[in-house]
Amino acid sequence: MSNSLFRKKSLANIISDANAGVSDGHGTKGLDKVLGVRDLTLMGIAAVIGAGIFSTIGQAAYDGGPGVIFLFLITAITCGFTALCYAEFASRVPVAGSAYTYSYVTFGELTAWIIGWALILEYSIGNIVVAISWSSYFNNVLEGMNIHLPEWMITDYKTAQHTYEAALAANQSTEGLAWTTAPMLGNWHVVLNIPAFIIVILITILAYIGIRESKKSANFMVGLKIVVLLAVIAVGVFYINTDNWVPFTPNGFSGIMKGVSAVFFAYIGFDAISTTAEECGNPQRDMPRGMIYSLLICTIIYIVVTLVITGMVHYGEFSNVKDPLAFVFEKINMTKIGYIVSVSAVIAATSVILVFQIGQPRIWMSMSRDGLLPKRFAKVHPKYQTPSFSTVVTGFIVAVPSLFIESGIVTDLTSIGTLFAFVLVCGGVLLLPKIEHKDGKRFNLPYINGRFIVPVLLAAFTYFFWNKIVDNFSHLTQDSHQEILFIVFLVLAYIITLVTILRNLSVIPVLGMLCCLYLMIEIPVKSWFVFFGWMGFGLVIYFLYGFRNSRLAQRQAQA
């Protein structure tokens, strides 16, 4: 039984299938190879420069002050380690599927299923959040054009109900609120976020039509929003008041780390590039470059924009501000620029939805090719050369919940799923056999022996966090259980360090695992319970269908 759960795919078979152009396992043609390094870089920027910089960056700045840029650096370094590991995998396993396929090669089938299921959570919840953010910015743009949509069409059921109840409790007028103006269907108030639903449907149609059209659209939107962000920086720098940067870290390191979910959510998406490996002309060379280039460009933009907006407006004014970039220009009476920023936010969010709607179907497709999901998920459209059925299913899963899910939905679940995937990718690289590519056409992850570096870094961490370690051990019985997560991380960190010493592991993937694990423990425990619930539901599906229908199991049985 255990051998069946951890059966691994052969790297040689994957490469052979990919080179033969029949990689779906059902005799249908593979995907169209049209992406180059520029397309991949722009696609990565399209996924990263989105809802994070236009919305969540405000609350992160409020919690951590201008010093939140250190969290951007920490997150960027973490993603950088992971990007190098992704690049190594992309060079060695140039097919669709991202971390799911990589885990199948290194850890085995059960782990691959778990990571694939986690990635589905990442892309689905992430896109729902972005769609809701898109709807909010889109409504702001319409308001600027004197077009007023009914309140019941631009919000969700729970938010409308809570707003109405809060107004009653405060003896305020309820006239014009979504709850009071919504049409009735029996006893049910018809309150639906229609713009969020529509944009997901439109983007799904674009992703269905073809990767060429999606590529052109994403490239255009990326170019436009980068121009807008550069304009924001160029104008805003003249309105910086350096007094707003004092104190630089008002709430200390804990305040900075409070924004982990918000900041990490801003970076989610660069790994979506790896899902398009099969549509890349030269994945061994171009995918590593695309990942690393996009990560560097986005980090620089994030840090500069954060410094500019916290210099223009005091960090204390960003509490619950959903449109921080537009907000800072309204504070200095430059509403026209704020309106332009709102327009660019709509474009930015659109590009993020597009990249995620491209990425998730390819994970469904990869899992179906392996027999873990029904065959229809692997179907490639004969004309458009896209995973048609998976794209439609993805659109349905994102569009329908975006109608009614509460607008204040946390980004923690998305961050947990992504960080979990990152940990397995970094760990998986350590299990790959060492191969040197002398032709220079493929990426090689640099080997740096971590035998001495990792223990020194862990010792430094223990020294600087000693008070926190002692405090966590003395408060293990508290209801938040956050202390337990910290202790679990500490135990794992020492185990990983010991293995690194004994086996001379490479420092880059090891640091990638440790950084991702630390960011994971900063996410509230309540989100972990939901995450484990999602994982449990996924395991039920696997044992009821995937385990019995695995193509790898069938091959092994025939052999």
* CATH architectural name of the largest domain: Up-down Bundle
Reported by name, the CATH topology of the largest domain is: Amino acid/polyamine transporter I
Report how far the terminal alpha carbons are from each other: 18 Å
How would you sum up the global shape?
A: globular
Main sheet attributes: strand count, strand direction, barrel closure: 2 strands, antiparallel
Number of helices: 24
| Percent strand | under 5%
Order of helices and strands: HHHHHHHHHEEHHHHHHHHHHHHHHH
What is the CATH superfamily label of the largest domain?
Amino acid/polyamine transporter I
Task: Give me the count of strands.
Answer: 2
Determine and state the CATH class of the largest domain: Mainly Alpha
Nearest-integer average pLDDT: 81
Please state how the strands of the largest beta sheet are arranged side by side.
1-2
Oligomer: single chain
Task: State the domain count.
Answer: 2
Structural class given helices, strands, pairing? mainly alpha
Radius of gyration: 24 Å
Helix content: 55-70%
Structural key phrases:
559 residues; mainly alpha; Amino acid/polyamine transporter I; two-stranded antiparallel ribbon; 24 helices; 2 strands; 68% helix; 1% strand; globular
Q: Which helices and strands occur, and which strands form pairs?
A:
Blueprint: H1 2-5, H2 11-20, H3 37-48, H4 51-64, H5 68-92, H6 99-106, H7 109-144, H8 157-169, H9 178-181, E1 184-185, E2 188-189, H10 194-209, H11 211-236, H12 252-257, H13 260-267, H14 283-312, H15 324-331, H16 335-369, H17 388-404, H18 412-429, H19 453-464, H20 466-474, H21 482-503, H22 507-521, H23 525-549, H24 551-558
Antiparallel strand pairs: 1-2
